[in-house]
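Dear colleagues,

As part of the handover before I leave the project, I'm documenting each prediction I ran so the next person doesn't have to rerun anything. This entry is a single chain, and its sequence is reproduced below.
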Amino acid sequence: MTGKCNFSCPYCFGEDVKKPGIDAEVYSKVISFAKHCRTSIGFTGGEPLLHPNFRDLVKAASKSNIPLILRTNGMLLGEYMDVIKSFQWIGISIDGADEKTVKRMRPSTSNFDYQETDKWNTPLENIKLINNQNPETKILLASLVSSFNYKALIRLAEIINSQNLNVSKWKLYQFTRNNFRSMSTSTKYETTTKYFEQVVESIRVSFKGDVIYKSGTGNCLLIDTKGTVRVNETIVGSVFEDFQELENKVRRLTMFKQISLNKVSTYDSE
């Protein structure tokens, strides 16, 4: 949706912040391609809620009866409760539950001055709002596991349980080096598979919901703000080409099955 974000997480895999938000022409093609493939659309970024026309874009997709998924840091959800009901799933990323951890992992960008406690408390309050106002919307919590935030994540599980928040799933990610930003911070955030799996089991003990995890290098099919279809940095095609040819290219990808299975396990949908 956009590369802009209210956080400047040094390990982010998102779009370049200098890229403009997706425009109406590209977005129309994305909707049409999703309808052609009979699949869902995931809104991501950056922080998708910072797109200036976010509300209108959600309404446009809703009219097409396409299943919608939102990936957000949760800070701005309270301002958009009128369109939140349009999403089947809302994935909210939180990487800690104490000031020291979130200050290191989630510094704010220059235009946003958040208190450190708000960086994890505000998303939890917004989960509570969604639970109360749109109980059919499923919540996916997403967290990056590193060697210094796993204790804060266990604490986060205890807070979620104590507040009786309805979180359907919690997905834990092992840090991997996929682009220039994650490469430059690898020594701070990289976690061995063995250690990561031990942390996953520790969090399972504390969290009442369903814990899933992504270990090692992962791939995701993305359409960027210009309409380019890619997996990580590998370009597959464009939404401006023939849809059937583009779909065939996607299905021929060696990692297509892996991507599809990951989507099903995460969101219970194809």
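The chain has eleven helices and nine strands. The chain has one domain: 24-267.

All the best with the project,
I.
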